[in-house]
Structure formats: C-alpha cells, structure tokens
Amino acid sequence: MKSIQLLLCGLLLLSAWSCDKKNDDLVMPNTGDNFPQVIRFDDEGDGDLEDADEFSFKLVLNDRSDASGENPGGKITPLKEDVTVLFEVKEKEGFNNLASYIKGVKAFYEIDDCTTSEDQGIDLDVIFDAATGKGSVSFPKDVEEVEVVFETDEDFFNDNVLNKDERSITMIVTAVQTSGAEKVTFNNALEFKYEVLDDEGVHGDWELDHEDATEFARFKALFGKVNEDIAGLDADDVDKIEISIEYNEVKVVVELKEMEEIDECDGPEMVNKVIELEADLEDLSTLTDEGEIEFVGEVEQPDGSIKEFVYKGEFKITSAGIELVLKGEYDDEETDKITLLLKK
Amino acid sequence: MKKLILLLSTIVPALIGFSQSAAETALLKGTISDAANRSKLAGASVRISGTTNGTVADLNGQFTLYCPPGNASVVISFLGYRDTTLQVTLQQNQVTTLSVSLSSGVAQLGNVLITGFLQGQAKALTQQKNADNIRNIISSDQIGRFPDPNAAEALQRVPGVNIERDQGEGRYVLIRGLAPQFTNININGEQIPSPEADVRFVALDAIPSDQLASIEVSKTLTPDMDGDAVGGSVNLITRTAQNKFTHINGSLAGGYNNLTGKPNVQGQLQFDQRFGAREKLGVMINGNYYHNHLASDNWEYAPSDNELELRDYELVRTRTGLSSTIDYKFNDRHEIYFRSIYSRFTDREWRRRYVFIPEDDEIEKLMKDRFEAQSIASFNLGGKHNFRKFYLNYEGQYSQGRQNTPYDHEVGFIAGMPSSFDVTGGKYPVLNAAGFNDNSNYEFDEVAYGHTLAKDRNITAKFEIGIPYKTGRSSGTIKFGGKTRFKKKSYTINSEAYGSDGGVPEANGFDEDPIKDNGTILGGRFNMGRPVNVASFNRFFNQNPGLFELDVESKSIDEALESFQAEENVYAAFLMARHQLKKVLLVGGLRYERTNVKYNSKDVVIDPAGDLQEIIPVSGSSNYDFLLPQVQARFELGKMTNLRASAAYSYARPNFSEIIPAQEINREDEVATIGNANLKPTKSLNLDLMLEHYFGNVGIVSAGIFHKKLDDFIYRRVLFNSPYPLTGTPIIPAIDVIQAQNGNDANLTGVELAFQRKLDFLPGFLNKFSLYTNYTYTHSKANLQSRTADPSKPNEIKSLRLPGQATHVGNIALAFESKKLLVRLAANFNGEYLSEIGGEPAEDLYVKSRMQLDLSASYVINPRFRLFAEGLNLTNQPFESYMGSKNVISQREFYSWWMRFGLKFDLHAKK
C-alpha cells in the first residue's frame, strides 16, 4: 500500500511540476522603467540662407510617462547625471573644407523662456574639431534639451548665382558616455542635416504689393478662405504682406498698421499687429528657378477641433521676383487657381 | 434588510416552537451503493412506506431522514435497480444507520448489468428524477465517457445548453438561449469569481472535467439558491472519499492534432480513502494535467473598412487541476469538511496575420506572442449538523479568480503595396496581392507590449437551518438561512506601444522558417511566407532601444480606460418550505438579496483635435434590493412520470464593463462612451412546465416549455446630442453618448425535448444500441432603441432577438454498448445566433450554426483497466460568422480534427 501512496505522491508532484511550463523562445523586452533614456536630435534637419552666420541642432530626451499623472501625454524626465554626447559630421555636400566654413561652436540650454545657461554664465563643455568633423557636448542633469550652435563664415556660400548642387552637412550622434548610474542611450538612426538655402532660388521672404488692388484682391481670394481676418482685410490697414518660404515651412504674414503692446523678455514692446498663417511644406522644387510647391496647415475651429488646409501649385522665379500660381482647398471648398506676383 | 431580519426573528422562534410541538423524531441515516461494484448510488430515493416522508441520497450515496420513532418500512429506489424494502425500528432521539446495497434490475435489462456508462446515466437520471427542481445532471461516469476535456465541453451535452468556443474548445455556457452573464457558475454550491476583468461569468475551459464528481444544471431556482441566475445555475461538484478502501483511479492519454501535427498528453490521478475504524476521516486528492497543441486557420473580413485578414494561430494550451476534500464525521449527527480546488489554464498563443487594406494601398503583417494564465482557487470550510429537531449547515468560502497576462507582444510591419480581393464566394477569399508574403517589402510600423492582471476575490459565509415537520400524513421541511458575500475585483493594465523614426530592419530581418504546412493555411490556399519571430525582434529591441520611442499618450489612454477597482457586497436571506403531499411535492418561499457596489475608475477626455486632454479619477456606487418569490411543484403522475411546474423570479447583475464609471470622451469623433454605475440588474419572471417519463432500463423522454419575461433588460443606447456629463453642469453642450441602459423589456419562450434510452426493443445485435438525443427551440424578442433612431426620433424602438439566443440547439448520439465495448458517435448542434448588435443592422454580427461530430470508444480489459480512444471535430467544422446578411461572411475559422487515446484505471485495495 505504501508503494502505491509513494507512487501517488510522486505523480502529484510531477503534475505540479508540469504546470510550471517553460516559456520557450521568449525574450522579454526592456520596457517601462527598464527602457533607457534616449537622447536624439530634436529635428531631422534645418536650413538657412547662404549668408547665415550660424546653424544649430538641438539634442533632446524622449518623452516618458509621468508617474504623477499630471501629464498624461508624457513629459521629458531630465537625466539624473551629466552625460557626454559624441557627434560627428557624417557627410557634407557641395564643399570640401569644413574648417573654412565652421569657425566655432558653443552650446547652451534654456533655463526659462527668457534665460539661457549662456546668460547665466554657465559654460557647457562642447568641443568640435573641424578637421575631423567630430565633437562632443555635455548634456547636464536636470536639463531637458541642449542646443549646439556652430558659428559659420557668412561669406563662404554667399554667391549671386542659383546653384544647381546641394550644399549641406549631415551630422549623427555616435555615442553617449555615462557613468552608468542611469540607463541612457541615443538614437543612432536619426541624422541632422543642415541645408544651405539658395537665396537666388525659391527660398526667402517675398513681399506682395498690397497697394496693387489686383494683387491684394488675389491675395485675399486665395488666403481669405482659410483666415477670416485676411478675408476682411482693407488695404489701408496693411503695412506689409510677406510670404516667407523657409526650410520645410511657409509663412504668410500680414503686418498691420495697427500697433499693440506685447510682453517680451526685455519688457513691454509696441509692435505691429500681425495676421499669420503657418504651413508645412509637403513638396517644393529646389535648386531650380521654377517648379512645384505644396504646403499644408491647420486651422483651429471655435470648438477646438482642427481642420486642414492645402495649397498646391507652381512657382517661377523671374527677374521681377516670383510668380506663385496656387490653388487652395479648405473645409471641402476650393479656391480658383490664383497667381500672385511677389518681390524679394 | 431590517424588515427581513425582523421577519425572520419573528418566524424562526415560531417555527422551532412549531417543530417542538410536533411528534418526537428519530434520525435515519445510511449509504446506498451498488451491490456489484460498490459504486455509491447518488440520487437514490429513500421513502418511508405509507407516508410522504422521504429524501434523496447525496452524491456519496448518503442520506439523512427525520422520521417518527417506531417500526418503519424503508423503500429505496434507483433507476434500473430493483426497489429494495427494509424493515427498521427507529428509536426516539436515536440515530439508526443503514448500509444498503442494491442489485440491478436484471430482468428489465435483459441480462445487461448496470455498469459503466449505463450506471453513469442511471445516476444522472435518478438524481434528475428525484430533484426538487428542474435540473439536469452529468455524473462523473458520464463526464469520463464523453471526449470532453473541460467543464464547458461536458455541459454542451445537456438539453438547452449551447457553448461559445475558443480555438475550437468550449469556453462559455449559454443556457436556454441566454447570454453567459445570465447564468451563474458555482463550485460546490458557491459562486466562483470570474478570472476575466470585465465580466462575472466564468470561462469553463479553465476547469478540467476530470476534477468533477458531478455537474448540475438547475433551470429553475429554489429560494436557497443564489437569485442572480436567469438562464440557469451551473454547479460543479468536486469529489469526496467514499469508503475505507484505498481507491486510486486515473488516466493517461496521448493524442494528436491534425492541424499542428503535434501530440497532446493528458493525465489524471485521484486518491481517496476513509480512515479510522468508523471511517470518520475522509481524504480525497485529485490532480490532473492536460497539454495540447492547437492551431487554427482563419480569414476575416471587415465590410465597413473593406479589410481582409488572413490569420494563422498556433497555441500551446495547458490545464492543471488540483482538488481535495477532507471531511470528518464526529458521529452520525455531526460532520465538517474542507474542500479546495485549484485550476490553472494557460494559453501560449502565436498569431500571424496579414491585413489587406486596398483603399490605402497598404498591407500589414503582424505577429503576436501572448501568454495568458487563468486560475481559479476556492477553499470551502463547512459543517453539517443534524440536531434532534433541526439540522444546521454552514460554510465559509474564500475564492479567487485571476487572469494574468504576463506578456502580450505584437510586432507590426507595413508595406505600401496594392491588393484586391473578392469574398463574395463565401467560402474562401480570392486574393490578388502579388508578393504580399515577401518580407523585404515590409517596414517596421509598431510594436506593442502589454501585460494585464485581473483579480476577483470572494469571501462568503452562509448558513441554513432546516426544521422537519409533520402535518397529518404529510410531512415537510421549513428552511431558512442567510448569506453574505464580499467581492473585490480589479483590473490593472500595462500597455506600451513603440514606434520608430527609422533604423529598424525590414521584416525579413526577423523572420524564421514556417511553423506548419510550409507556411500555408486554409488547405494550402494561402502562403503566409516566413513568419516574424517575436523573440528575435525583442532581442533587437533590447539591443537598440535608442531606435524606439514610446507612444506615451496611447499608454496613458489604454491603461486608464479599462482599469478599475470594484467592491460588491451581497447580503441575502431566505425562507422556504418543502412540503410533500401525497403525490405532490411543493417547494416555495422567498429570497431577499441586497447588493452594495462601489467602483473606482478613470475618465479619459480626448480634446477636439484628437489629443489626450485629461485623465480624471472618478468613482461610482449603487445599491439595489430584490425580493424573489419562488415556487415549484412536482406532481408524481406515476412511479416513473413527473409533471413539474415552476414560477420564480430571478435577476442578472450587469457586467462590470457596463457598470464601472469609466468613460472615454472623444470630442474629435463627438462620441462619449461612459459606464453606468446606476445600471439596474435585469429582473426576470421564469415560468416552467415539464413532463418527464423515465424508463426502467435507464432512459428518459421529456418535454418542457419555458417562458421568461425580462424587465430592465440591459442594452447599449445612444443618447444623441446629449450634454456631458449627463447630470450636473455640462462641460460639453452636445455629444453622442453611448451607455448601457435599462428600460426595455424582452421575452424568451422555448420548448425543450429529450429522449434517451437503450434500444432493447430492437431485435438481436441492434438491442445493444442506445440513443441519446435532445433538442431545444427558443424564440426571443427584445425591444431596443432602433438603429435608425436619430436626434429627431431618439426613442424609436425596434424588436430584435436576444444576443446569444440560438433558435435551435440539440444533441444526438448513438452508442453501442456490449459487456466490454462501448462505441459512441455524438453530434452536437448549435444553431445560428446574434452575437453582437452593431451600430446598424448591416453591422450585426451573427454566428452561423455549427454541428460537431465526435467519436469515442472504450474497451474494458477488466474491472480495473479500460482503454479508450476519442476523435473530435471529425468533419472539420469551421466557426463561421456573418455581418448583417448571410452573403457577407465575416469570419471562417478552421481547427481540423484532433484525437486522443489512453488508459483509464480504477484500483481498489483492501486496507
């Protein structure tokens, strides 16, 4: 009988053991608190006109969950220790001598909207060797982002011709050096590309002659669909109308004669009132004097919802300026194809 | 509640006084077993000849009967056995104990001994015949004979029961055409908590059928049962040690799944014995383990999005059960017991799928790896005491259900590729998507990592006191009792989705060799290519975290939306009488139940631009009372014929998902989905009439009709352009609010027919066949807010059938049984039913009818050893659903056939 009972106990133990099933071919991901802090470029690129005397990139931390629940959409959780971010120039287009173009480097971070570490005399460790294209910058603890600014020779690219080749610098982050107290890594797939925008091309600020009744009417017909303030404009109230074609962005700015007081970091300031439309460039022909352009923006509705607008058409640069032929689409309505003539 | 306590405090002393004024009593106890194989004969009828005084043996064949002192003639009856009459002399205030062995009615059965399968049927039918209410029984012998690995599969053989399946295996039970939330699930007479987060009902595939001594399906309620059962009440009863001999039984089986091409294994072992000279201590331990490789091939079509999915599932499913019963009999009057059961069900699931989205010229390729463990643990400590004038039963229970999903990983890739398909044929889609299984076309899209934990814990205490009485020649029992149940339920979610700005290789960087059928599914019609290996991807994820970025907003929303903590306290009391007039048994009384509920959850507010605006903690509570009158009658039209009638009120509590005050306010879509903590339970008046005739050679023919009138039926209502919140100062002036609400009524009517008997009237060889068949027809009508309702006519009503209600449900089985061999071919038919009500009729989801054919056989080597073999789903019946119209097939899922074979043993050893 005892042998039967021993057999029984053995089989029961066996069945209990069998329920402790192995999870074959399982690799658990390092998620939650085990997921490291990630440093990356804030943007994939930037660009400025040929005569710019500096360019910069920002290094930021990815958003993380806010354990307090105050920011359900997440927030940046600053590092608990200083780390050093190594970066280098991966590629350059349209020129050979980096040292002739980049003259210096500095780095800072924002303390508040009006104060930077530079203002406070805080020196961030940053180095850049233009000969090798390699550099590093300190990313201090308790900081959300660091901006690295490269001082450039403003005459290096500044010419009077429309260049047919791209001029750019591509940078990557190559390493993060930490003491190991906190898990910190970096995004090695992202690149930051700075492009030199040709001011003989489509980029730049283009001004519309608002005193020309025809041009002004066309402008209102085109953008008045999207913006009621533009639709209701009177030419006499306008001081200036500009369409700025920047790196990946288009801004339509109507500066009014009417002044208003705004709070700036240095105190209150009287400025012209402004009506502004901002849109992302979806398509733009560059390195050419004529081509296609398409930009898309959003308009917030009275109830807080968002509606998208799209402008699509062609541009042509002439000796007189730029000819923009655009058709707008917003709220299931389309404008006619309208031609605007603007000057630099 | 106070009124009821007052009522009880008045009635109870009066009842005891009434009892004391009645004649003095003696106690007759005993055990009834089979003379040949010592098997206990549960359900045997014990009656004092010439009186209406009688009782029924419990699952262990034991009975207790209060009788007047003096000489008595005790008649013991059991279906298929000869009636046995014993002369006993009962002493006042003394206990007289009998041990009765019955012999089978050889003459009636044509020299067939009541053994094996037939004895199982006899036990089930005898319990059914002698039950106070309309009840179906599955005895342990029957559970062991059908090829049913879990409790849900075993229940599908019961008239009026249909089941919802998961991966081809039964999971949820629907009784008489009502959805699972209308049935309560008990273990040893006490409700068990649901491991799942948002519901109350229990997935019965978590409970191995080998653990059970019996399954009872009560279709009508008596006041001593929980009142929250509209469809019925299922009671799963675990085993108990029965005699002084060491008893070991078990089984060992292996099998094969045709779709996976992999084996399955299964084993069960049980030990039971009573110890001591007077067998006071009983110990039963049961353990079992089941390990199966499952698979399914599936295509799904979403008409509203015009998307087609091809799915390939592979699962490793295990089921582990441990149960024990320790009971101690102090003497003939007093006993205590401790019962425990632990069941663990695990699913490791790999799901590989393609989603074809022609409108976007996109194809998604996704791979999921998920492990889910459901466990149920229940510990019952109780006692039974037979005092001179009354008996007292009491029990405390701690039980817990858990569903733990420690990992749920799904990695998705996307290809910008055109595709087109045609599903109008209904059988298989015709797909045109050249190169869709080339992994080099697929870029990384998103990986989702989740883990969740749902917990449900009950602490229950209850007692009942029964006072026998006698009035003239009739006798009866007054019974009253009380119960409290404290429930805590919670659901926590961890959900993280990571995207990437680049740097992650294409799908071919993580693929592996096809798992089955060279990567083809649906009979070789579609080649799924090389699947993505999630472990390989996770390794890359861990090595390159910098390439991935958490979608924090989605994490916050997903984790807040469904998580909750809830408490539910139930207080119940009942008073009932069981009175036997000559040929009529009357059972009636009142049950009172009060429920106090409290919930904590979170509101998620999405701003008009579609971004997460705010997550707000909220809480809710509600209380409700029910007074449930219930009456049953059993008319003994003949020795083998009963007519039963019942009228009883019952109710069904809402699912937690409907009642928790969690809400999602999506101002972008202008839709708010909100819980309703004030949702009232559905109340039902249940009317039943059943005529049943039993055959002496173990069989039954029965016909019944039932009608249920449901008030406060719960349905999903859209409140068009409603202010939000619904009460107080609105913060949103107009938004469409979707909320589960009361207010509409529903009716359900059905007919239930059953026939089973040995075909011994046939000549020669044919008289060894038995026929087992049942059929249930139901019709329902629920009045719901019409889907054409809009702000101009928000109260427009439309009649629909109840979700889950199948018009036709049935079983038919033909068995051949000789002394050694049993072969049984069983078909189970589940009729078409409405599964989900959509936003419009074209979005209603229907599950098509399905008939499964199973074959089982067993061969008795000797009384101790038996070989068995079983084959399931022999005809490869798919699960099929359609949306709106039968022409719009939305899913076809195939499981192929699987089988098992093995050895069962039943060893008795003398001490």
From TrEMBL, chain A:
Organism domain of life: Bacteria
Protein name from the UniProt record: DUF4382 domain-containing protein
Organism (species): Terrimonas ginsenosidimutans
Automatic annotation (TrEMBL), chain B:
InterPro entries on file: Beta-barrel_TonB, Beta-barrel_TonB_sf, CarboxyPept-like_regulatory, Plug_dom, Plug_dom_sf, TonB-dep_rcpt-like, TonB_rcpt_bac
Domain of life of the native organism: Bacteria
Family annotation (SUPFAM superfamilies): Carboxypeptidase regulatory domain-like (SSF49464), Porins (SSF56935)
Keywords: Cell outer membrane, Membrane, Receptor, Signal, TonB box, Transmembrane, Transmembrane beta strand, Transport
Domain (TonB-dependent receptor plug): residue spans on this chain: 129-232
Subcellular location: Cell outer membrane
Topology of this chain in the membrane: Multi-pass membrane protein
Domain TonB-dependent receptor-like beta-barrel: 387-874
Family in the record: Belongs to the TonB-dependent receptor family.
Name of the protein in its database record: TonB-dependent receptor
Originating species: Terrimonas ginsenosidimutans
Lineage of origin: Bacteria, Pseudomonadati, Bacteroidota, Chitinophagia, Chitinophagales
